[in-house]
Design brief:
The protein is mainly β. It has one helix at 21-24; strands spanning 13-19, 38-43, 47-54, 60-67, 77-84, 90-98, 103-110, 116-122, 136-141, 147-153, 158-168, 174-183, 190-199, 205-212, 217-225, 231-239, 242-250, 256-261, 268-276, 282-289, 302-308, 314-320, 326-333, 339-345, 362-368, 374-380, 386-393, 399-405, 408-414. The strands form seven sheets. The chain has a five-stranded antiparallel beta sheet with strand order 1-6-5-4-3.
């Protein structure tokens, strides 16, 4: 969870380079135990993969964070991006290196022409200016990994801005969302904000919308577009020791059409993912400690899945729960409108795969149809903690997952049924 105390200092960024693939990747481990149909593509050495996406050719892009001077506690971090072909062979790696402070990649997306957009936040400004107050950024790279442009965004008097998610429309425009803390013009008062920006493919700003939320802390975590390119954003609102989820629908110009929130505050709820199906329905997923829509809390934190129609009416709510804890950070919808949830549990969810209480957190992959029926649930893991941070579907329906697998940082591929 992000907090207002996570302030980002402004510094100078000095280097952008294409790096040898061997610097970005670790050795492929032959002794990793995985279920049938799940393949280890690669491991990452001293890097943390955060997001993965596939282009229309089936090539895969992974973005994440690298710590340079790993022996130093306060060492700088930079971001990296790796491109793999559909067979899992690494094509190139590129990095952005900060001289001081942290530079964090939170999501990577691609357009129909194979251009790559990396979204995140940084104490550094990628060489554009030695000083500034807008640490949220979007970097555009071409198919070869060469940087086309960098755009920073944030409020005029911003103290903190964290960019969390984005999507690309049919015309190659990228829409991004961030949130943070901003000062008043006098500098005497601070208030929370959520910011949404649309950037054209050439780097020009199309529009920027800032939603000031006074003393209510909106944490905007995920953004997606539907078939008509309406924008959906989800996250949570914090009220001292309680919270609720929210879901926004914006039009193509960034104007808010409607907002939906939890009916009741609970101990905590974190809405982490949003996705839409081919009919325009929208789904949000997260985890919570407390009862939701008549579903009793089973253990510690339970994962939930909600469906809304285009008008914002809630259709149904489902939960994934054991006697312990479940978490989720990524969700996708395939071409058959199956909702695929990738999360973690330290309990036992299924008799397929893990059947005894894990020593840490295991992965789970659950599939639902649009009626809310669970189609499958697979649980598997290492002897340590297994956390999925990002996922992607390629044109053949194969599922890619980046995250942690015990002590390894990994890229996995789960084959589509027809490819097994």
């Amino acid at each position: 969870m992000f907090h207002q105390s996570m302030l980002i200092s402004v510094i100078v960024v000095v280097l952008a380079s294409v790096v040898p693939v061997s610097e970005a990747l670790g050795e492929k481990k032959d002794n990793v135990v995985l279920p049938d149909g799940v393949q280890l593509i690669t491991t990452f050495d001293k890097m943390g993969p955060r997001s993965v996406v596939s282009d229309t050719n089936g090539d895969i892009y992974v973005a994440g964070n690298k710590r340079y001077n790993a022996k130093e506690i306060n060492a700088s971090r930079g971001i990296y991006i790796n491109k793999f072909d559909y067979q899992g062979k690494s094509i190139w790696g590129t990095s952005e290196v900060a001289a001081e402070g942290d530079t964090v990649a939170r999501e990577v997306v691609v357009d129909q022409n194979g251009n790559i957009f990396v979204i995140g936040d940084s104490g550094g400004l990628f060489g554009e200016s030695p000083r500034g107050r807008s640490p949220c950024y979007v970097i555009k790279l071409n198919q070869d990994g060469r940087k086309s442009w960098v755009k920073r965004f944030g409020p005029k008097h911003g103290k903190m801005c964290l960019a969390t998610s984005g999507a690309v429309d049919k015309n190659g425009n990228v829409i991004v969302v961030g949130f943070g803390l901003s000062d008043s013009e006098s500098g005497k008062d601070s208030h929370n904000f959520t910011i949404v920006q649309k950037i054209a493919s050439d780097g020009d700003i199309v529009w920027q919308k800032q939603f000031d939320t006074a003393q209510i802390e909106y944490t905007a975590m995920s953004l997606t577009l539907d078939r008509s390119e309406y924008i959906y954003i989800t996250g949570w609102l914090s009220f001292d020791s309680e919270s609720i989820y929210f879901l926004w629908k914006l039009d193509q110009q960034g104007n808010k059409r409607w907002e939906k929130k939890s009916a009741m505050k609970i101990e905590f709820i974190m809405s982490e993912c949003v996705a839409t199906d081919s009919s325009g329905n929208v789904y949000i997923a997260g985890y919570a400690r407390g009862n939701i829509d008549g579903l009793a809390n089973v253990g510690g934190a339970d994962v939930y899945l909600m469906k809304f129609n285009e008008a914002g009416d809630k259709v149904w709510t489902r939960s994934i729960a054991s006697s312990r804890n479940e978490l989720i950070h990524t969700m996708k919808i395939d071409k058959n409108d199956q909702i695929i949830m990738i999360g973690s549990t330290d309990g036992v969810l299924s008799d397929k795969g893990q059947t005894t209480t894990p020593r840490g957190y295991d992965y789970f992959i659950a599939r639902y149809n649009t009626n809310g029926d669970r189609l499958s649930l697979l649980q598997f893991g290492s002897a340590g903690n297994d956390i999925a941070y990002g996922s992607a579907l390629d044109p053949n329906g194969n599922l890619y997952i980046v995250g942690e697998y015990g002590k390894l940082r990994i890229l996995l591929r789960m084959l589509n049924e027809c490819d097994k």
